[in-house]
Each structure stands twice: as C-alpha cells, then as structure tokens.
Amino acid sequence: MRPSHTTLVTGGAGFIGSHTCVELLNHGCELVVVDDYSNSARQVLERVRAITGRTIVADYEVDIRDRHALSAVFERHGIDAVIHFAARKAVGASMRMPVEYYDTNVGGTTALLSVMREQGVKDLVFSSSCSIYGEAGQGGGPLDEHTPVRPTNPYAASKAICERILADVCRLCPEFRVLSLRYFNPVGAHPSGLLGEVPSGVPDNLMPYVSQVAVGRRTHVNVFGDDYPTADGTAVRDYLHVMDVAEAHRIALEHLADTEGFRAYNIGTGKGSSVLQVIKAFGEACERQLPYRIVARRPGDVAELVADVTAVQREWGWRPTQDLPAMCRDAWKFQQLNPFGYRTREPKEMEFQ
Ligand code: NAD
Ligand code: WQD
C-alpha cells in the first residue's frame, strides 16, 4: 500500500469501520468515508481525528444504495481501493425485516460494485461474518474457510450471497480483486476510551450487554443456556479485539496487490471463551462480580464457534495480539467514559431494567 493510497471506507463511522480508520490513518493512508449514520453518530469521525491527529480527506452522508451519490464521491476523489463495512448487522432484526436486510446488504454491495466498475476501481475488502457457516458450525472444532456455507437467517444469508456475487464478479471480470474477511466475534474498544461499540436499544450481543450490567444500566446478564456440551455448559465463541480486526484490514489492503480474484479468510483468534468466562473476565476488569442468571438457550445458537486461522497466519503472518482481559479492559473503559454511547444523556429507548 502506497502512503498516498486513497481508500474509500463505507460504514466508516461504525464500530469496526471507525477503529479501522484509526489504524489506516496511523499508517499514512488517505481516507474518504461514506456513511448514512443509520447506526452511528457524527461525533465518531471527530474522535477518529482527535485520536490520530490526522484528517480524513472527506466524509459524506450517503446511502450506499444511492449510485448517483456514490459515483459523485468516486469522481471527486481518486479512489484506489474500497473497504466495504456498510450494512445492517443484527441477526434478530433480520428475521423481522428480511427485505430491508437484503436490500441494504446485497443491494448496497451491488450498487457499490457497479459504481466501482464504472469508475475503474477494482480492489475491495469486504466485511463478511462467521455467521455464514451457520449450521455447519454445529459439528464442533475450529472452522476453516472450506467449511460449507449454510446460513440460518437473512443477515447471514445476505453475507453469503454477497460473497457469491463477489466471487462471480472476480471470476468473470478478472481485473477485480476481492478479499472477504469473515470476522468471528469482534469486541473491545480503542484503548483511549474514545471509540467503542454503541448498540441501539437493548444489546443483542454478549459483550455490550455485560458492559451495560457493569455500568449499572442493567441488573444482570441473562446466560442463554448452561447445558451445551462445553467445559462449563455455556456456549463458546471466538472473541477478538476490534483493534486486531482493524489491523487485519490494513494488512488485507497491503495484500490486495498480490491477490488473484476472490479470497476469503477467517479473522479470529482460534481460541474460544465461554459465556461464563466472558462474564468473569469482565468482572475482573471492572473489579466487581457481575450478577447473572441462567435462562433458556437462545433459538438458533450453537454450542461452539471458533475460527481455524491457519490460512491468514500462514499467508499474511497476521496474528491477533490482544487477549480476553484486554478486550474487557478496553470495553469497560469506553463504557465508563461513555455510559450513554456518543450521546450525553440516556436516550428514551434505553431505560434502566
Ligand atoms: P456498525 O453498524 O457499527 O457499522 C456499520 C456502519 O454502516 C454504520 O455506521 C451504519 O450507519 C452504516 N450503514 C448502514 N447502512 C448503511 C447504508 N445503507 N448506507 C451507508 N451506510 C450505512 O457495524 P459493525 O459492527 O462496525 O460491522 C461492520 C461490518 O462488519 C458490517 O458489514 C457487519 O455485517 C460486519 N460484521 C460485524 C460483526 C460484529 O460482530 N460487529 C461480525 C461480523 C461481521
Ligand atoms: C455470544 C454468546 C449467546 C447475549 C453474533 C452474530 C454473528 C456475528 C457476531 C455479525 C452466545 C450468548 C448473548 C446475552 C448470552 N455478527 N449470550 N446472553 O451470536 O456468537 O454472533 O455476533 O456478523 O453474525 O450472530 O454473538 O454476542 O450475540 O453471543 O448468553 O445477553 O453469548 O447465546 O452463545 P453470536 P453474541
């Protein structure tokens, strides 16, 4: 990656996008950001600037499906490559609003591809998800990239469909180069406490929920099942620090030049932690025992999802450096400094439970 390389980051104000912007700016990359702020706040990019002391070339409030607006962004800036984060990401919401999920995630990706094609930009890093493995993950043991893709909900299916489209485009238009990163469970926050994950409403995901219990916004963690065939009976996932995920994107950009066509890589640590281990580790970070209750399993959950990261380690030499205590420490710092996310006071929909 040349220092003057200009990367378009879609969804750059979101959780993973904002941390990736920090990583890229710290490595001399020029950035243009588009985001419709449907799941993020305008203050985020100000904080990215504060952390890095660098300026984003330009940021635009644009819906990724708006080809006209997107073309104008490409025409105004010499874009060399794109990192495409912009998407809807909640599994539960995707079951209630499948059309909206396919429209944003698949329609957004095809709109972006058609503009890239029209503008002669061929290099893309795509945000995929371990959820595409779906039922294939039931078997236990680390999942490698050859695991069959069997999504079980519209969100996961939208990512699987995008991968299929991207693979076809690369096969039929050989000048395209696409790296699809299948993240497992990104958590944590920037160590400054200025950037982190801000769920809207009651958090679906474990770490943000635990974090809100720690800060006193929720009374206890509901542990979804303790009768799984795992060491302590609670489900195991491959949590990884969002700064490690951000670094993987920088390295992916560097590897686009030696990529042929479409490639997908798992982005995880290769190490699983149970729900109870996460609650305990967070308790150590915030120096208090966090209350929890065992409740029924969440429909659709599997016992264990852990990445086989042999490919990315062997081919890129990328290894995550941060452990579960570091993920909890940084998530806790962000939660303490920003108890209501990027807002200054409690929004109505986030009442105390
Ligand atoms: P996020 O919601 O924090 O970030 C997504 C960003 O995209 C937000 O800023 C949102 O406002 C923006 N956006 C949404 N729809 C848009 C549209 N139509 N036009 C323009 N911008 C739009 O999510 P995240 O956790 O940072 O996830 C980033 C990407 O990684 C997503 O594609 C997600 O599916 C994928 N992913 C996330 C996880 C995870 O656990 N966070 C795991 C695997 C994959
Ligand atoms: C982790 C574990 C729950 C909340 C999701 C998406 C996946 C990807 C990552 C986007 C599970 C348990 C949770 C709670 C609990 N995202 N849990 N109490 O389900 O592994 O993956 O995020 O691509 O697509 O599906 O993550 O954080 O929701 O759950 O006991 O209040 O914690 O049952 O075992 P998941 P999660």
TrEMBL record:
Residues 5-190 form the Ketoreductase domain. It catalyses: UDP-alpha-D-glucose = UDP-alpha-D-galactose. GO terms for molecular function: UDP-glucose 4-epimerase activity. InterPro entries: Epimerase_deHydtase (IPR001509), KR_dom (IPR057326), NAD(P)-bd_dom_sf (IPR036291), UDP_G4E (IPR005886). The keyword NAD applies. Its EC number is 5.1.3.2. Its cofactor is NAD(+). Pathway: Carbohydrate metabolism; galactose metabolism. Keywords: Carbohydrate metabolism, Galactose metabolism, Isomerase, NAD. Homodimer. NCBIfam families: galE (TIGR01179), PRK10675.1 (NF007956). Belongs to the NAD(P)-dependent epimerase/dehydratase family. This is UDP-glucose 4-epimerase. The lineage of its organism: Bacteria, Bacillati, Actinomycetota, Actinomycetes, Kitasatosporales.
